[in-house]
Write a structure and sequence with these properties.
Oligomer: single chain
Shape: globular
Distance between the termini: 75 Å
Helix content: 25-40%
Bound molecules: fructose -6-phosphate, magnesium ion
Number of strands: 17
Number of helices: 9
Number of domains: 1
Order of helices and strands: EHEEHEEHHEEHEEHEHEEEEEEEHH
Radius of gyration: 20 Å
Amino acid sequence: MKITISVLKADVGSIGGHLKPSLALIEEIRKFIAERARGLLIDYYISSTGDDIAILCTHTRGPGDQKIHQLAWEAFQAGTTVARKSGLYGAGQDLLKDAFSGNVRGLGPAVAEMEIDERESEPFIFFAADKTDPGAYNLPFYLAFADPMYCSGLILSPKMSQGFKFRIIDVSFTEKTKVIELVAPEELYDIAVLLRDTEKYVIESIYSRSTGNQAVAISTQRLHNIAGKYTGKDDPVAIVRVQGEFPATGEVLAPFNIGHYVAGFMRGSHIGPLMPCRLNATISYFDGPPVVTGAAFSMKEGKLTEPADVFDHPYWDTIRTSVAQKASEIRRQGFCGPSMLPISELEYGGVVEKLNQLEKRFTYTD
Ligand code: F6R
Ligand code: MG
Ligand code: MG
């Protein structure tokens, strides 16, 4: 059976700064979707990660469907009304345009979707990250899909021995979608050359080379490309199918134990380690650290089980402790050097304004 899994995510307001949406806001979105799901959705799951709310839904209408996108857009608008009424901070923040025009791509919310031929059992993980951008997934998914040091299935499972195809987008090019397809293992070094630059090149999707089936879909929208100026980090979502021809759940999770440094953190302008957290995680230290949550599901004819919280295990408590140490360590050097992002990636214009003023005061001597 062909099933579409769609995730649409937005920040439409939160409590106490950019920490988490209110229960009333989440409830409003849940109610809105529940009332309109009949005849449109097979199933859905509403969750929050940091200050973002994600609507994950299953249906048979294919990716980019107008009705599905409109449903999410209107749900986020209804949420914005509640956010405004209760004085939540940043109400409607990610709804960058006034009118819906057929598809939420280009309007602010992040989208990851894939249409699949549902397997006998269809396990997948829904990842959501806050206070970071889509390049945050470059390293963990490279390691999970291309490196036998992390994914033992690449050498143990005949179903995976042909490797995977990566579709990588240049997100700095905004006129059209600029995309390249590279295959692992033959083109590993080329993949690495691109993925090292997480602000420019991001994985959009990954496919099994033995079956051609899609394994991964990631939201690649950049808010500042839409708004014409920097309006916040893009807080990316991802769908990852697991088991069988794809890496096992644990192989996909394994690279998240690095707590690798990503762009984001305070004011979307710093570098911080990505902390794997429990579902519905909130934000704290230095408006961070950047967090990622994972909800694993099984699915039958589009009907979802309850989520299994992939980072809710004693193992990840140890990792969170070491990631917290990494966060404190890089923060010790404040604004200096690699702890803050380059000017092109800063979320606020203050540095550029100051530099322009100071430029006039420089003097020149031989
Ligand atoms: C980062 C983020 C926060 C805010 C910070 C200041 O993406 O959302 O770190 O940048 O809390 O927020 P404003 O400028 O809204 O007061
Ligand atoms: Mg926010
Ligand atoms: Mg956010």
